[in-house]
Q: What sequence folds into this?
């Protein structure tokens, strides 16, 4: 629904605002909607790739579209992150750290911006911050250091540690 996508856009904007307020980066975000149409979602991804954006975060409802988008972005050397909500995942259980880490993030955000962030904001925060940290020594005109995403030591996100394994899967 439009309300659902607007919530995602608002959460992503909160993440960007928080990062820009707390980190020494100048993150810019462009948000487009596919209106729930997988073909439009893929066209949007292709447009961002053609524009040479630094990274793509795909809030998707279509796993196949996200898979194709990731393949295209990978071929173009653009980091691609997926935040999904497909029917195949309904009812799944996920391991997670305690809510204390989110409360700390939310309290900090609330102090700075006077509002509570959406719970999903930590995923966007981690995605953007990981991309920025990997790009710290990267120079435009050179290939993006995608190999750093597969660091076997992983990364510490707001919701706990994570790492990427073969095929770009997350664990």
A:
């Amino acid at each position: 629904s439009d309300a659902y996508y607007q919530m995602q856009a608002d959460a992503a904007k909160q993440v960007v605002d928080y990062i820009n307020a707390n980190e020494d980066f100048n993150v810019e975000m462009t948000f487009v909607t596919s209106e729930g149409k997988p073909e439009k979602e893929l066209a949007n991804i292709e447009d961002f790739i053609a524009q040479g954006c630094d990274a793509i975060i795909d809030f998707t409802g279509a796993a196949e579209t996200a898979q194709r988008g990731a393949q295209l972005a990978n071929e173009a050397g653009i980091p691609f992150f997926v935040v999904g909500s497909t029917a195949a995942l309904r009812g799944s259980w996920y391991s997670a750290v305690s809510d204390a880490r989110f409360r700390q993030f939310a309290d900090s955000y609330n102090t700075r911006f006077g509002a509570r962030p959406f719970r999903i904001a930590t995923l966007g925060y981690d995605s953007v911050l990981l991309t920025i940290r990997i790009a710290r020594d990267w120079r435009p005109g050179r290939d993006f250091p995608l190999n750093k995403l597969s660091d076997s030591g992983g990364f510490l996100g707001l919701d706990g540690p994570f790492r990427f394994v073969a095929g770009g899967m997350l664990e």
